[in-house]
């Protein structure tokens, strides 16, 4: 009996149409209103879950395409625009396609959290992205550190920062300084607000630790590995 090739052919045609439509849609986003694309225009981009269902197993490839698109979108507006409405949706699509693409959570959350003109000025969306990453990668402790960093410096939610560091410190392989940055560790006071004198010293310490642990984007693992 000859195999029925009809479903495969239909799926292949749909995939080609999807890629073509995505390219047209993304170009439309660039040209329709120039740099100031509106939130409504993201509707031209298929959702991550829809893309994943019809990707024929190539969702990882599509995730990298959308991640590249998110980086290009951010870079094209950095210093030139205060409108980053499409950044969070692009990152959401990326991480729907590949929930284990760590760089999209780590670097994407920094893109979102930094104040304009250095970033999108959307720390709440950065937190949502990191929490999504933690749900998909609960054993990757660096996501908890980035979450605590954003709570502390960008949202000024010191309780949430302590909780994030505390959660991350319990992960196997987390570096020892995570315990120092959460309450309850012997002889270690709670993290003070950054506007106080002790808080300024603490902020500097956090930034030093943050800088020491940062690695180039190209060295982030595509899948979480114990650290």
Task: Write a brief structural summary.
The protein has 227 residues and is mainly alpha-helical.
Structure description:
The protein has 227 residues and is mainly alpha-helical. The protein has two domains: 15-137; 138-217, no CATH class. It is built from ten helices and no strands. It has helices at 6-32, 48-53, 59-77, 87-97, 102-113, 123-136, 141-153, 158-169, 177-180, 197-213. The radius of gyration is 20 Å and the shape is flat. The termini are far apart. The model is unreliable at 35-44, 184-189 and 211-220 (pLDDT under 50).
Task: Give a quick set of tags describing it.
0% strand; 227 residues; flat
Radius of gyration: 20 Å
Order of helices and strands: HHHHHHHHHH
Query: Which ranges are low-confidence, i.e. pLDDT below 50, for 5 or more consecutive residues?
Result: 35-44, 184-189, 211-220
Mean pLDDT: 76
Please count the beta strands (DSSP E, at least 2 residues each).
0
Range of helix content: 55-70%
Tell me the span between the first and last alpha carbons: 52 Å
How would you sum up the major sheet? none
Tally of individual helices: 10
Beta-strand share of residues: under 5%
The domain tally reads: 2
By helix and strand content, what is the structural category? mainly alpha
Shape designation: flat
